[in-house]
Specification:
- The protein has 221 residues and is mainly alpha-helical.
- It has 6 helices and no strands.
């Protein structure tokens, strides 16, 4: 057996007490020295450095300049997502309200007091009124979502000055006018004015009550 093991004298045994030249190199490039710049490679030092306990102050300026962020839509939900949400909620509310009204009408206008006749009358009225009101509210919600998305896309708030936000007001007017456009221009203008007034009234009411505008996530509520 060699006499150089563990004695610190000569040799390059792994059991030698004297650090080798590679050990000296590692000790000379300790945690205090800056790391090399790997900007040309795909390795992000700002991502892997904390896992090894390396402080960000020792990273090169190019590696620690900007952190990585997830993609985020600053304008919120897209037009399609908003349209599906508004139309779905509006349709369910319309079906519910129409069904309740149909229940009342079915019980009131039943031609006989027999159970089967009364049940048939209630089902007929609930189906007719529920589907009618539900379809109407769902269609208007789709129109409103499309007009509001178009107004946001063109950034009309840059041209309306103190009238903010203009997109819901424009969408309310255009929705009413489009839905009743077949009845003539006067009826369409009146319906559009009612839609704009509903949006403006909700905005004023929310301002008085201190409720954030659009906090409900449905239409202009």
């Amino acid at each position: 057996m060699s006499s150089n093991l563990g004695t610190g004298k000569g040799g390059s045994s792994p059991y030698d007490d004297t650090p080798s030249s590679s050990g000296d190199t590692l000790s000379s490039t300790g945690a205090g020295s800056p790391l090399p710049d790997f900007s040309a490679s795909k390795i992000q030092l700002s991502t892997v450095a904390p896992a090894f306990g390396i402080p960000s102050s020792s990273l090169p300026r190019s590696a620690a300049a900007q952190p990585d962020y997830l993609d985020y839509d600053q304008k919120g939900r897209g037009v399609v997502s908003t349209m599906f949400t508004n139309s779905g909620i509006s349709y369910m509310i319309g079906v519910t309200l129409g069904g309740l009204y149909g229940l009342q009408e079915g019980l009131r206008n039943t031609p006989s007091s027999r159970w089967k006749v009364k049940l048939n009358s209630v089902l007929n009225h609930c189906g007719r009124h529920g589907s009618g009101i539900g379809n109407m509210m769902g269609a208007t919600a789709i129109l409103y979502s499309l007009y509001e998305g178009a107004a946001d896309n063109f950034e009309l708030d840059q041209y309306t000055g103190p009238v903010q936000p203009p997109a819901p007001l424009l969408a309310g007017f255009m929705t009413g006018a489009t839905y009743y456009m077949r009845a003539g221009p006067r009826v369409a203008a009146l319906a559009g004015s009612i839609g704009m007034g509903a949006v403006g009234g909700t905005f004023v009411l929310y301002s008085v009550l201190g409720i954030p505008y659009g906090s409900k996530g449905w239409l202009w509520f």
